[in-house]
Amino acid sequence: MTVSGGAHSRGMTNTEALRLDEVRKVHGADGNQVVALAGVTLSLPAGTFTAVMGPSGSGKSTLLQCAAGLERPTGGRVFVAGHEMKGDETELTKFRREHIGFVFQHFNLLPALTVLQNVTLPLRLAGRRVDEARAAEVLRAVGLGDRLSHRPQELSGGQQQRVAIARALVASPSVIFADEPTGALDTRSARAVLALLQQAVRTYGQTLVMVTHDPVAAAHADSVLFLADGRLVGRMIDPTAEAVAERLTHLGDELVRKGA
Ligand SMILES: Nc1ncnc2c1ncn2[C@@H]1O[C@H](COP(=O)(O)OP(=O)(O)OP(=O)(O)O)[C@@H](O)[C@H]1O
């Protein structure tokens, strides 16, 4: 299946933020190979929020890693904001620093740095001008304006994840990739983080791709892509948690019937 996002329903521009052309990823050596991605083609417009779902082992993390330039595909091509992601490790690192933001399940904040320093670190690493006033403004927007000089361990899990979101937003990347961003949070903090991610897309026009196992989290996205056996097998626009859960159950049934 090929997925192509149309003009966005809220009237956003249809600039392409992410494109994958027949992306394949094979892990392991000859004789012991696992096909994690079996040729994925998709196009996501800028300013959209996309969730990626599928059974365990269906290739979600691999898709995210390849799309974000953290893993090299075995075949196919990845374009971010019209630029093909290619080159040696140094070029890829530079490309990621300029174009890609990350939000991880376990926040990945540096414990020795303050909240403000954590948020400005990607700009420093990229050799970009550090505008502390803007960083503080983004931290205020995520509800942490009074925590700038705190260390991550002085914050709750939900607050730490909001710092990580501010860190991703401050660099204005072409795409933010979030891997199970609410996986380590209680329900209430998860809801706040999801609302914030949604706001980043709706208010700032950020493009966001989120891997999740949770239909409630996926329902915050504009559309959900379903993966099975390393292939895109479906797409749902304007998802509800119930509809996503039902689609996932049927996906599981289909795989059981096929003997996967
Ligand atoms: N480094 C690796 N070496 C070998 N096989 C791998 C490697 N990484 C992933 N795989 C395999 O590739 C397939 C896809 O894995 P991936 O982690 O992308 O799935 P996933 O959908 O994210 O799973 P989960 O929901 O359990 O996190 C699986 O069969 C997995 O075992």
TrEMBL record:
SMART domains hit by this protein: AAA (SM00382)
Top-level taxon in the UniProt lineage: Bacteria
Keywords, in A-Z order: ATP-binding, Nucleotide-binding, Transport
- SUPFAM superfamilies, from UniProt? P-loop containing nucleoside triphosphate hydrolases
The family database entries (InterPro entries) matched by this protein are listed as:
AAA+_ATPase (IPR003593), ABC_transporter-like_ATP-bd (IPR003439), ABC_transporter-like_CS (IPR017871), ABC_transpr_LolD-like (IPR015854), MacB-like_ATP-bd (IPR017911), P-loop_NTPase (IPR027417)
Q: Which GO terms describe its molecular function?
A: ATP binding
Q: Which residue intervals define the domain ABC transporter in the entry?
A: 18-254
Would you tell me the protein name for this molecule?
Answer: ABC transporter ATP-binding protein
Q: What broad taxonomic lineage does this protein's source fall under?
A: Bacteria, Bacillati, Actinomycetota, Actinomycetes, Streptosporangiales
